[in-house]
Amino acid sequence: MVLSRLKAGGGIDHGKLVHVHQCRAKVLYLMGRSDRALADVERGLAIAGRLGDRRAVAEFKQRLGDIHAVAGRYEAMRDAAGESLSIYRGIGDGKGQAASLNSLGYVCHVLGDYPGAMEHYRRSLELQEEVGDRSGQATSLSNIGVVSWHTGDYPEAIDCFGRSLAIQEAAGDRKGKAITLSYLGSVNALLGDLPRAFDCHRASSMIREEIGDRYGQAESLNNLGFLHNSLGDYHLALEHYRRALDIQEEIGDLYGQAYSHNNIGVARGFLGDHASGLENLTKALSLLQAIGDQKGQAFCLSNLARNHLERSDPARAGELLEKSQTLAEKLGIREVVRRNELLFGELALSGRRPEAAERAGKALRLAEELGSKSGRAGALLLAARVASAGGEDGAAEGRFRESILLYKELKQAHDLSIAQYRLAEFLIGRKRHGEAADLLTQAREHFTVIGNAAWLEKAGSQLERMKAGHGA
Fold first, then answer.
1. Is residue 193 part of a domain?
2. Is the distance from CB of 160 to CB of 179 less than 8 angstroms?
3. Do 4 and 120 share a domain, yes or no?
4. Do both 2 and 128 map to the same domain?
5. Is the pLDDT of residue 470 over 70?
6. For the chain, percent of residues with pLDDT exceeding 70
7. Is pLDDT above 70 for 2?
8. Whole-model pTM?
9. Do residue 260 and residue 306 come from a single domain?
Protein backbone atom coordinates (compact mmCIF):
# COMPACT_ATOMS: atom_id res chain seq x y z
CA MET A 1 0.00 0.00 0.00
CA VAL A 2 2.80 2.40 0.98
CA LEU A 3 4.84 1.52 -2.10
CA SER A 4 1.89 2.00 -4.42
CA ARG A 5 1.22 5.46 -2.99
CA LEU A 6 4.86 6.42 -3.42
CA LYS A 7 4.75 5.35 -7.05
CA ALA A 8 1.48 7.13 -7.78
CA GLY A 9 1.24 10.59 -9.25
CA GLY A 10 3.68 12.49 -11.41
CA GLY A 11 6.91 10.96 -10.12
CA ILE A 12 8.59 8.59 -7.73
CA ASP A 13 10.42 9.74 -4.60
CA HIS A 14 13.29 7.25 -4.87
CA GLY A 15 14.81 8.34 -1.56
CA LYS A 16 11.62 7.51 0.30
CA LEU A 17 11.30 4.30 -1.69
CA VAL A 18 14.75 3.21 -0.49
CA HIS A 19 13.69 3.93 3.10
CA VAL A 20 10.50 1.91 2.73
CA HIS A 21 12.41 -1.05 1.31
CA GLN A 22 14.83 -0.83 4.26
CA CYS A 23 12.05 -0.76 6.84
CA ARG A 24 9.96 -3.46 5.23
CA ALA A 25 12.99 -5.74 4.75
CA LYS A 26 13.76 -5.40 8.46
CA VAL A 27 10.19 -6.21 9.51
CA LEU A 28 9.94 -9.18 7.14
CA TYR A 29 13.29 -10.50 8.35
CA LEU A 30 12.16 -10.33 11.98
CA MET A 31 8.92 -12.10 11.04
CA GLY A 32 10.93 -14.95 9.52
CA ARG A 33 9.98 -14.11 5.92
CA SER A 34 13.51 -14.14 4.56
CA ASP A 35 12.43 -14.72 0.97
CA ARG A 36 10.30 -11.59 0.92
CA ALA A 37 12.91 -9.63 2.88
CA LEU A 38 15.49 -10.60 0.27
CA ALA A 39 13.27 -9.23 -2.50
CA ASP A 40 13.06 -5.87 -0.73
CA VAL A 41 16.81 -5.82 -0.11
CA GLU A 42 17.59 -6.52 -3.76
CA ARG A 43 15.18 -3.84 -5.01
CA GLY A 44 16.37 -1.30 -2.46
CA LEU A 45 20.00 -2.09 -3.23
CA ALA A 46 19.47 -1.49 -6.93
CA ILE A 47 17.75 1.87 -6.33
CA ALA A 48 20.33 3.02 -3.76
CA GLY A 49 23.11 2.09 -6.17
CA ARG A 50 21.58 4.19 -8.95
CA LEU A 51 21.15 7.13 -6.57
CA GLY A 52 24.73 6.84 -5.37
CA ASP A 53 23.51 6.56 -1.78
CA ARG A 54 26.51 4.72 -0.31
CA ARG A 55 25.16 4.60 3.24
CA ALA A 56 21.95 2.95 2.07
CA VAL A 57 23.95 0.46 -0.03
CA ALA A 58 26.00 -0.45 3.06
CA GLU A 59 22.84 -0.89 5.15
CA PHE A 60 21.28 -3.14 2.52
CA LYS A 61 24.50 -5.17 2.39
CA GLN A 62 24.27 -5.63 6.16
CA ARG A 63 20.69 -6.86 5.92
CA LEU A 64 21.67 -9.12 3.02
CA GLY A 65 24.31 -10.69 5.26
CA ASP A 66 21.68 -11.35 7.95
CA ILE A 67 19.49 -13.11 5.41
CA HIS A 68 22.41 -15.22 4.17
CA ALA A 69 23.13 -16.25 7.78
CA VAL A 70 19.61 -17.60 8.26
CA ALA A 71 20.06 -19.86 5.24
CA GLY A 72 23.51 -20.97 6.40
CA ARG A 73 25.32 -19.14 3.57
CA TYR A 74 28.16 -17.93 5.79
CA GLU A 75 30.70 -17.22 3.06
CA ALA A 76 28.11 -15.04 1.35
CA MET A 77 27.44 -13.31 4.68
CA ARG A 78 31.16 -12.66 5.08
CA ASP A 79 31.31 -11.12 1.60
CA ALA A 80 28.31 -8.87 2.26
CA ALA A 81 29.65 -7.75 5.65
CA GLY A 82 33.09 -7.08 4.17
CA GLU A 83 31.56 -4.92 1.45
CA SER A 84 29.48 -2.95 3.96
CA LEU A 85 32.55 -2.45 6.18
CA SER A 86 34.53 -1.05 3.27
CA ILE A 87 31.75 1.44 2.43
CA TYR A 88 31.29 2.53 6.05
CA ARG A 89 35.02 3.15 6.36
CA GLY A 90 34.95 5.19 3.19
CA ILE A 91 32.23 7.49 4.50
CA GLY A 92 33.61 7.63 8.05
CA ASP A 93 30.63 5.92 9.71
CA GLY A 94 31.96 4.40 12.94
CA LYS A 95 28.62 2.97 14.02
CA GLY A 96 28.20 1.21 10.68
CA GLN A 97 31.75 -0.13 10.80
CA ALA A 98 31.05 -1.61 14.24
CA ALA A 99 27.91 -3.35 12.96
CA SER A 100 29.83 -4.83 10.04
CA LEU A 101 32.62 -6.01 12.37
CA ASN A 102 30.02 -7.75 14.53
CA SER A 103 28.71 -9.53 11.42
CA LEU A 104 32.22 -10.64 10.48
CA GLY A 105 32.76 -11.81 14.04
CA TYR A 106 29.56 -13.82 13.83
CA VAL A 107 30.78 -15.66 10.74
CA CYS A 108 34.07 -16.50 12.49
CA HIS A 109 32.13 -17.65 15.55
CA VAL A 110 29.76 -19.95 13.68
CA LEU A 111 32.62 -21.48 11.70
CA GLY A 112 34.57 -22.12 14.90
CA ASP A 113 37.23 -19.40 14.62
CA TYR A 114 36.89 -18.11 18.20
CA PRO A 115 40.05 -15.95 18.23
CA GLY A 116 38.89 -14.30 15.00
CA ALA A 117 35.41 -13.77 16.42
CA MET A 118 36.76 -12.21 19.62
CA GLU A 119 39.05 -9.90 17.64
CA HIS A 120 36.18 -8.58 15.51
CA TYR A 121 33.82 -8.20 18.49
CA ARG A 122 36.39 -6.29 20.56
CA ARG A 123 37.19 -3.96 17.65
CA SER A 124 33.46 -3.36 17.26
CA LEU A 125 33.09 -2.54 20.97
CA GLU A 126 35.98 -0.07 20.82
CA LEU A 127 34.36 1.79 17.91
CA GLN A 128 30.98 1.86 19.65
CA GLU A 129 32.55 3.31 22.79
CA GLU A 130 34.26 5.97 20.66
CA VAL A 131 31.03 7.08 18.99
CA GLY A 132 28.84 6.62 22.07
CA ASP A 133 26.63 3.91 20.54
CA ARG A 134 25.14 2.37 23.69
CA SER A 135 22.88 -0.06 21.86
CA GLY A 136 25.81 -1.28 19.80
CA GLN A 137 27.94 -1.67 22.91
CA ALA A 138 25.28 -3.97 24.38
CA THR A 139 25.34 -6.11 21.24
CA SER A 140 29.13 -6.39 21.20
CA LEU A 141 29.26 -7.17 24.93
CA SER A 142 26.75 -9.97 24.39
CA ASN A 143 28.78 -11.30 21.48
CA ILE A 144 31.98 -11.28 23.54
CA GLY A 145 30.04 -13.03 26.29
CA VAL A 146 28.92 -15.78 23.91
CA VAL A 147 32.49 -16.48 22.77
CA SER A 148 33.58 -16.57 26.44
CA TRP A 149 30.74 -18.99 27.18
CA HIS A 150 31.59 -21.29 24.28
CA THR A 151 35.25 -21.37 25.27
CA GLY A 152 34.37 -22.13 28.89
CA ASP A 153 35.04 -18.75 30.57
CA TYR A 154 31.65 -18.61 32.31
CA PRO A 155 32.43 -15.79 34.80
CA GLU A 156 33.52 -13.51 31.93
CA ALA A 157 30.40 -14.50 29.98
CA ILE A 158 28.06 -13.66 32.87
CA ASP A 159 29.82 -10.34 33.44
CA CYS A 160 29.44 -9.36 29.77
CA PHE A 161 25.79 -10.40 29.66
CA GLY A 162 25.03 -8.46 32.83
CA ARG A 163 26.60 -5.28 31.42
CA SER A 164 24.75 -5.76 28.14
CA LEU A 165 21.41 -6.33 29.86
CA ALA A 166 21.78 -3.15 31.93
CA ILE A 167 22.24 -1.10 28.75
CA GLN A 168 19.32 -2.78 26.97
CA GLU A 169 16.94 -2.29 29.89
CA ALA A 170 17.86 1.39 30.12
CA ALA A 171 17.35 1.83 26.37
CA GLY A 172 14.11 -0.16 26.16
CA ASP A 173 15.70 -2.57 23.64
CA ARG A 174 13.31 -5.51 24.00
CA LYS A 175 14.71 -7.63 21.18
CA GLY A 176 18.24 -7.24 22.50
CA LYS A 177 17.08 -7.93 26.05
CA ALA A 178 15.42 -11.17 24.93
CA ILE A 179 18.63 -12.33 23.28
CA THR A 180 20.79 -11.52 26.32
CA LEU A 181 18.34 -13.19 28.71
CA SER A 182 18.53 -16.27 26.52
CA TYR A 183 22.31 -16.30 26.80
CA LEU A 184 22.20 -15.83 30.56
CA GLY A 185 19.75 -18.69 30.86
CA SER A 186 22.00 -21.04 28.92
CA VAL A 187 25.10 -20.24 31.00
CA ASN A 188 23.18 -20.59 34.27
CA ALA A 189 21.95 -23.99 33.06
CA LEU A 190 25.52 -25.11 32.44
CA LEU A 191 26.44 -23.95 35.95
CA GLY A 192 23.56 -25.97 37.41
CA ASP A 193 21.30 -23.06 38.42
CA LEU A 194 18.17 -24.35 36.69
CA PRO A 195 15.64 -22.10 38.49
CA ARG A 196 17.54 -19.02 37.31
CA ALA A 197 17.89 -20.56 33.84
CA PHE A 198 14.12 -21.14 33.60
CA ASP A 199 13.43 -17.56 34.70
CA CYS A 200 15.74 -16.16 32.02
CA HIS A 201 14.44 -18.35 29.19
CA ARG A 202 10.77 -17.79 30.04
CA ALA A 203 11.27 -14.02 30.18
CA SER A 204 13.09 -14.15 26.85
CA SER A 205 10.37 -16.29 25.27
CA MET A 206 7.61 -13.94 26.43
CA ILE A 207 9.34 -10.90 24.89
CA ARG A 208 9.90 -12.72 21.61
CA GLU A 209 6.26 -13.74 21.34
CA GLU A 210 5.14 -10.18 22.06
CA ILE A 211 7.38 -8.66 19.37
CA GLY A 212 6.75 -11.42 16.79
CA ASP A 213 10.36 -12.64 16.57
CA ARG A 214 9.88 -16.07 14.93
CA TYR A 215 13.55 -17.04 14.98
CA GLY A 216 13.75 -16.08 18.62
CA GLN A 217 10.59 -17.99 19.49
CA ALA A 218 12.06 -21.17 18.04
CA GLU A 219 15.31 -20.60 19.89
CA SER A 220 13.45 -20.08 23.18
CA LEU A 221 11.47 -23.28 22.64
CA ASN A 222 14.73 -25.16 22.15
CA ASN A 223 16.23 -23.57 25.25
CA LEU A 224 13.22 -24.45 27.40
CA GLY A 225 13.25 -27.94 25.93
CA PHE A 226 16.89 -28.28 26.96
CA LEU A 227 16.01 -27.39 30.56
CA HIS A 228 13.19 -29.95 30.65
CA ASN A 229 15.65 -32.43 29.16
CA SER A 230 18.09 -31.66 32.01
CA LEU A 231 15.35 -32.39 34.54
CA GLY A 232 14.54 -35.71 32.89
CA ASP A 233 11.17 -34.64 31.47
CA TYR A 234 12.03 -35.87 27.99
CA HIS A 235 8.49 -35.97 26.63
CA LEU A 236 7.99 -32.30 27.46
CA ALA A 237 11.44 -31.55 26.05
CA LEU A 238 10.49 -33.27 22.79
CA GLU A 239 7.29 -31.25 22.60
CA HIS A 240 9.29 -28.02 22.79
CA TYR A 241 11.91 -29.21 20.28
CA ARG A 242 9.26 -30.26 17.75
CA ARG A 243 7.44 -26.93 18.04
CA ALA A 244 10.77 -25.19 17.44
CA LEU A 245 11.46 -27.38 14.41
CA ASP A 246 8.03 -26.59 12.93
CA ILE A 247 8.80 -22.87 13.07
CA GLN A 248 12.30 -23.32 11.66
CA GLU A 249 11.07 -25.38 8.73
CA GLU A 250 8.38 -22.78 8.05
CA ILE A 251 10.87 -19.88 7.94
CA GLY A 252 13.73 -21.80 6.29
CA ASP A 253 16.16 -21.60 9.23
CA LEU A 254 18.63 -24.40 8.38
CA TYR A 255 20.91 -23.62 11.31
CA GLY A 256 17.99 -23.86 13.74
CA GLN A 257 16.71 -27.04 12.11
CA ALA A 258 20.08 -28.70 12.65
CA TYR A 259 20.05 -27.89 16.34
CA SER A 260 16.44 -28.99 16.79
CA HIS A 261 17.15 -32.32 15.10
CA ASN A 262 20.20 -32.72 17.34
CA ASN A 263 18.14 -32.01 20.46
CA ILE A 264 15.35 -34.37 19.39
CA GLY A 265 17.94 -37.09 18.77
CA VAL A 266 19.43 -36.65 22.23
CA ALA A 267 16.03 -36.67 23.95
CA ARG A 268 14.97 -39.81 22.09
CA GLY A 269 18.19 -41.44 23.23
CA PHE A 270 17.37 -40.65 26.85
CA LEU A 271 14.01 -42.33 26.30
CA GLY A 272 15.83 -45.41 25.01
CA ASP A 273 14.70 -44.91 21.39
CA HIS A 274 18.22 -44.94 19.95
CA ALA A 275 17.18 -45.91 16.43
CA SER A 276 14.93 -42.86 16.01
CA GLY A 277 17.48 -40.72 17.80
CA LEU A 278 20.13 -41.82 15.31
CA GLU A 279 17.94 -40.63 12.43
CA ASN A 280 17.62 -37.15 13.93
CA LEU A 281 21.29 -36.88 14.83
CA THR A 282 22.32 -37.99 11.34
CA LYS A 283 20.01 -35.37 9.82
CA ALA A 284 21.47 -32.74 12.13
CA LEU A 285 25.04 -33.63 11.15
CA SER A 286 24.17 -33.49 7.46
CA LEU A 287 22.71 -30.00 7.85
CA LEU A 288 25.66 -28.79 9.92
CA GLN A 289 28.12 -30.08 7.34
CA ALA A 290 26.19 -28.40 4.53
CA ILE A 291 26.21 -25.11 6.45
CA GLY A 292 29.86 -25.44 7.44
CA ASP A 293 29.21 -25.14 11.18
CA GLN A 294 32.23 -26.89 12.73
CA LYS A 295 31.24 -26.09 16.31
CA GLY A 296 27.85 -27.73 15.79
CA GLN A 297 29.49 -30.72 14.15
CA ALA A 298 31.75 -31.23 17.19
CA PHE A 299 28.72 -31.38 19.52
CA CYS A 300 26.67 -33.53 17.14
CA LEU A 301 29.48 -36.04 16.54
CA SER A 302 29.83 -36.42 20.31
CA ASN A 303 26.09 -37.10 20.61
CA LEU A 304 26.27 -39.61 17.77
CA ALA A 305 29.12 -41.36 19.56
CA ARG A 306 27.03 -41.67 22.71
CA ASN A 307 24.15 -43.03 20.65
CA HIS A 308 26.37 -45.79 19.24
CA LEU A 309 27.85 -46.50 22.67
CA GLU A 310 24.35 -46.97 24.08
CA ARG A 311 23.59 -49.30 21.14
CA SER A 312 26.64 -51.45 22.02
CA ASP A 313 28.66 -50.37 18.99
CA PRO A 314 31.92 -49.25 20.63
CA ALA A 315 33.97 -49.35 17.43
CA ARG A 316 31.75 -46.81 15.64
CA ALA A 317 31.44 -44.76 18.83
CA GLY A 318 35.24 -44.53 19.01
CA GLU A 319 35.52 -43.36 15.39
CA LEU A 320 32.95 -40.61 15.92
CA LEU A 321 34.57 -39.53 19.18
CA GLU A 322 37.95 -39.11 17.48
CA LYS A 323 36.36 -36.83 14.86
CA SER A 324 34.52 -34.82 17.49
CA GLN A 325 37.58 -34.44 19.70
CA THR A 326 39.75 -33.33 16.78
CA LEU A 327 37.29 -30.55 15.96
CA ALA A 328 36.72 -29.59 19.60
CA GLU A 329 40.44 -29.30 20.36
CA LYS A 330 41.08 -27.34 17.17
CA LEU A 331 38.26 -24.90 17.98
CA GLY A 332 38.95 -24.73 21.71
CA ILE A 333 35.48 -25.99 22.73
CA ARG A 334 36.38 -27.26 26.18
CA GLU A 335 32.83 -28.35 27.02
CA VAL A 336 32.87 -30.84 24.13
CA VAL A 337 36.39 -31.96 25.07
CA ARG A 338 35.12 -32.62 28.60
CA ARG A 339 32.13 -34.64 27.40
CA ASN A 340 34.30 -36.66 25.06
CA GLU A 341 36.81 -37.50 27.79
CA LEU A 342 33.95 -39.16 29.70
CA LEU A 343 32.90 -41.18 26.65
CA PHE A 344 36.50 -42.20 25.91
CA GLY A 345 36.72 -43.26 29.55
CA GLU A 346 33.61 -45.41 29.27
CA LEU A 347 35.07 -47.12 26.20
CA ALA A 348 38.33 -47.76 28.08
CA LEU A 349 36.62 -49.35 31.11
CA SER A 350 36.67 -52.70 29.33
CA GLY A 351 40.28 -53.76 29.58
CA ARG A 352 42.11 -50.41 29.60
CA ARG A 353 41.72 -49.26 33.21
CA PRO A 354 44.77 -46.90 33.29
CA GLU A 355 43.42 -45.03 30.27
CA ALA A 356 39.95 -44.86 31.84
CA ALA A 357 41.48 -43.39 35.02
CA GLU A 358 43.39 -40.81 32.98
CA ARG A 359 40.27 -39.84 31.06
CA ALA A 360 38.26 -39.48 34.28
CA GLY A 361 40.97 -37.22 35.72
CA LYS A 362 40.99 -35.01 32.62
CA ALA A 363 37.19 -34.76 32.64
CA LEU A 364 37.22 -33.80 36.33
CA ARG A 365 39.86 -31.10 35.83
CA LEU A 366 37.95 -29.64 32.89
CA ALA A 367 34.68 -29.67 34.86
CA GLU A 368 36.37 -27.76 37.69
CA GLU A 369 37.91 -25.26 35.26
CA LEU A 370 34.52 -24.74 33.60
CA GLY A 371 32.65 -24.55 36.89
CA SER A 372 30.35 -27.36 35.75
CA LYS A 373 28.67 -29.26 38.59
CA SER A 374 27.09 -31.66 36.13
CA GLY A 375 30.49 -32.28 34.57
CA ARG A 376 31.99 -32.93 38.00
CA ALA A 377 29.24 -35.44 38.79
CA GLY A 378 29.85 -37.30 35.53
CA ALA A 379 33.62 -37.41 36.07
CA LEU A 380 33.20 -38.67 39.64
CA LEU A 381 30.85 -41.41 38.43
CA LEU A 382 33.43 -42.57 35.88
CA ALA A 383 36.21 -42.34 38.48
CA ALA A 384 34.11 -44.43 40.88
CA ARG A 385 33.69 -47.17 38.28
CA VAL A 386 37.43 -47.13 37.58
CA ALA A 387 38.22 -47.41 41.30
CA SER A 388 35.67 -50.21 41.68
CA ALA A 389 37.30 -52.17 38.86
CA GLY A 390 40.66 -51.77 40.62
CA GLY A 391 39.40 -52.98 43.98
CA GLU A 392 39.64 -49.53 45.61
CA ASP A 393 36.35 -49.93 47.44
CA GLY A 394 36.57 -46.94 49.78
CA ALA A 395 37.46 -44.48 47.03
CA ALA A 396 34.86 -45.99 44.69
CA GLU A 397 31.97 -45.73 47.16
CA GLY A 398 32.88 -42.17 48.13
CA ARG A 399 32.89 -41.07 44.50
CA PHE A 400 29.63 -42.88 43.72
CA ARG A 401 27.89 -41.15 46.62
CA GLU A 402 29.30 -37.69 45.82
CA SER A 403 28.13 -38.08 42.22
CA ILE A 404 24.64 -39.02 43.40
CA LEU A 405 24.48 -36.01 45.74
CA LEU A 406 25.45 -33.66 42.92
CA TYR A 407 22.86 -35.10 40.54
CA LYS A 408 20.21 -34.77 43.26
CA GLU A 409 21.20 -31.14 43.80
CA LEU A 410 20.99 -30.50 40.05
CA LYS A 411 17.69 -32.41 39.77
CA GLN A 412 19.05 -34.40 36.80
CA ALA A 413 16.80 -37.43 37.14
CA HIS A 414 18.22 -39.52 34.29
CA ASP A 415 21.86 -39.19 35.34
CA LEU A 416 20.90 -39.61 39.00
CA SER A 417 19.15 -42.89 38.21
CA ILE A 418 22.16 -44.22 36.29
CA ALA A 419 24.46 -43.27 39.18
CA GLN A 420 22.14 -45.10 41.60
CA TYR A 421 22.18 -48.15 39.33
CA ARG A 422 26.00 -48.11 39.17
CA LEU A 423 26.32 -47.82 42.96
CA ALA A 424 23.85 -50.69 43.34
CA GLU A 425 26.03 -52.83 41.06
CA PHE A 426 29.01 -52.01 43.25
CA LEU A 427 27.13 -52.87 46.46
CA ILE A 428 25.85 -56.18 45.07
CA GLY A 429 29.47 -57.19 44.44
CA ARG A 430 30.16 -56.44 48.11
CA LYS A 431 27.08 -58.43 49.24
CA ARG A 432 25.29 -55.36 50.58
CA HIS A 433 22.01 -56.42 49.02
CA GLY A 434 19.61 -54.42 51.14
CA GLU A 435 21.22 -51.08 50.23
CA ALA A 436 21.46 -52.18 46.60
CA ALA A 437 17.78 -53.10 46.49
CA ASP A 438 16.80 -49.66 47.81
CA LEU A 439 18.89 -47.93 45.14
CA LEU A 440 17.57 -50.12 42.32
CA THR A 441 14.00 -49.47 43.45
CA GLN A 442 14.63 -45.71 43.40
CA ALA A 443 16.27 -45.95 39.98
CA ARG A 444 13.32 -47.95 38.61
CA GLU A 445 10.88 -45.35 39.89
CA HIS A 446 12.85 -42.58 38.17
CA PHE A 447 13.15 -44.50 34.90
CA THR A 448 9.40 -45.18 35.00
CA VAL A 449 8.65 -41.46 35.32
CA ILE A 450 11.21 -40.57 32.65
CA GLY A 451 9.93 -43.25 30.30
CA ASN A 452 13.27 -44.86 29.49
CA ALA A 453 12.21 -48.44 28.80
CA ALA A 454 15.74 -49.76 28.22
CA TRP A 455 17.14 -48.61 31.57
CA LEU A 456 13.90 -49.52 33.34
CA GLU A 457 14.28 -53.11 32.12
CA LYS A 458 17.96 -53.10 33.08
CA ALA A 459 17.29 -51.97 36.64
CA GLY A 460 14.32 -54.33 36.99
CA SER A 461 16.31 -57.32 35.76
CA GLN A 462 19.16 -56.55 38.14
CA LEU A 463 16.74 -56.30 41.06
CA GLU A 464 14.99 -59.57 40.16
CA ARG A 465 18.30 -61.44 39.77
CA MET A 466 19.45 -60.22 43.14
CA LYS A 467 16.19 -61.21 44.85
CA ALA A 468 16.19 -64.62 43.19
CA GLY A 469 19.76 -65.28 44.24
CA HIS A 470 19.22 -64.33 47.86
CA GLY A 471 15.60 -65.25 48.55
CA ALA A 472 14.62 -61.66 49.08
1. no
2. no
3. yes
4. yes
5. no
6. 95
7. no
8. 0.75
9. yes
